[in-house]
UniProtKB/TrEMBL annotation:
CDD domains: P53. This is SFRICE_003901. PANTHER family: CELLULAR TUMOR ANTIGEN P53, P53 PROTEIN LONG FORM VARIANT 1. Zn(2+) binds at C164, H167, C231, C235. One of its GO terms (biological process) is apoptotic process. Binds 1 zinc ion per subunit. Transmembrane segments: none annotated. Belongs to the p53 family. It comes from Spodoptera frugiperda. One of its GO terms (cellular component) is nucleus. GO terms for molecular function: DNA-binding transcription factor activity, RNA polymerase II-specific; metal ion binding; RNA polymerase II cis-regulatory region sequence-specific DNA binding. It is found in: Nucleus. The keyword Membrane does not apply. Its cofactor is Zn(2+).
């Protein structure tokens, strides 16, 4: 067994062993000196193992001269494997070079967006979004990709992500199996589709819910799978406004992990509005210093998806809207509130460095709030509660 970092030992395969006691690996961890890395890796059991070890452990013969991993066809006791305990978040490509890309072809501006800057998907509930996976298919033609939704904040990471009571109940009474009905992430394929498995045990609190998809590759084209969320971030009793991410792991049939990647996610009714809000709040203005040109911040790794760099730009021109006729208080309020929200955000972002510029917002924000209040007052009052 090697004890070097993967970069130093290209002939080894990075793997995680579910059955390997931590003590055996403890010495390997002492080679890390970066405290951040140590923090991220504290829950990861990573080891470098010769490919022939895997084959021997799996209990079937290795065909001489063959470089193809035939792990997926090994006989195993449990399939699909359901991992227990908090899933590690630390991404690594591994020796099979596992990578993913949010599929640009399916980006739909109204229901599905992807922020390169924040590595986060913005998507509405029940809307498909597809992810493209790639790895060294010549060595490993048949592999599985597991998608597990986790809470991204460290304080919440120990908690299993579950659907809210209402949405779970809807699916459950419609006859959906419990481990599917509880999972906030579903495959876009019909339940029961060959090669798509739902994992997780409802009765075991440390059994995380995941979607496992089998891929059989014959060529270099990356493979794609579409998913959808079955709950929103705002579902109380469920995700309840906590930040979430999807962990994708490349696995063999026995559940051994060869690579891991992570994508943040926000499931909401207005993906564009929320992406603008998050990019503004988290992207450029995170440090509270003067605005950095957008081309200097985390350049996108791929150029396939057009990210609107002007989302961060604030101009000072004042626009006078013509008298408009809007049908429905909801539509009118939604429009005005979005404008109010964006102006308040601009003040929040600029007040520290540009106090003179932000002063011009004050009266206009008051006027907008008054206009919103007027419409609120005009709304049809709800019917009085029924008397007993
Ligand atoms: Zn829900």
């Amino acid at each position: 067994m090697g004890s070097k970092l993967a970069d130093d030992s290209p002939d080894y395969i990075i793997m995680e062993h579910h059955d390997m006691p931590y003590e055996e690996l403890a010495s390997d961890f002492q080679i890390f000196t970066d405290p951040d890395l140590m923090l991220n890796m504290e829950n990861i059991e990573t080891s470098n193992i010769d490919l022939s070890d895997i084959v021997h452990q799996a209990g079937y013969p290795q065909s001489p001269g063959s470089e193809t991993m035939d792990i997926a066809s090994a006989s195993i006791v449990e399939f699909p494997f359901s991992p227990q305990g908090r899933p590690p978040h630390f991404p690594f490509a591994g020796n099979l070079n596992f990578t993913l890309e949010v599929n640009s072809k399916d980006v739909h501006k109204k229901t599905f967006l992807y922020s390169h800057r924040l590595n986060r998907i913005y998507v509405d509930r029940k809307c498909n979004f597809s992810i493209q996976f790639n790895w060294d298919y010549i060595i490993a033609p048949q592999m599985f990709v597991r998608a597990t939704v986790v809470f991204s904040d460290e304080t919440q990471a120990e908690k299993r992500v579950e659907r809210c009571v209402q949405h779970y109940h809807e699916s459950s009474t419609a006859g959906m199996q419990a481990e599917i009905a509880k999972n906030v992430l579903h495959s876009s394929r019909e339940i029961g589709t060959q090669g798509v498995y739902y994992c997780g045990n409802v009765d075991m609190a440390d059994s995380w819910y995941s979607v496992l998809v089998q891929f059989d590759r014959t060529g270099p084209e990356p493979c794609t799978h579409a998913y959808q969320f079955s709950c929103k971030n705002s579902c109380t009793t469920g995700i309840n406004r906590r930040a979430i991410a999807i962990i994708f792991t490349l696995e063999d049939k026995t559940g051994k992990v060869y690579g891991r990647q992570k994508v943040g996610a926000r499931v909401c009714a207005c993906p564009r509005r929320d992406m603008v809000k998050d990019e503004t709040a988290e992207g450029v203005y995170k440090t509270g210093k003067k605005r950095i040109p957008s081309n200097q911040i985390d350049p996108p790794k791929t150029k396939k998806i057009k990210v609107e760099n002007n989302l961060m730009e604030f101009d000072d021109k004042v626009y006078k809207l013509p008298p408009l006729e809007i049908v429905g208080s909801r539509a009118a309020l939604c429009g005005l509130k979005t404008m109010l929200e964006m102006m308040e955000l601009a003040v929040e972002c600029r007040k520290k460095n540009e106090p003179d510029v932000t002063a011009q917002y004050a009266q206009r924000i008051v006027n907008l709030k008054n206009a919103i209040q007027k419409i609120e007052n005009l709304k049809t009052p709800p019917p009085p509660p029924l008397s007993q």
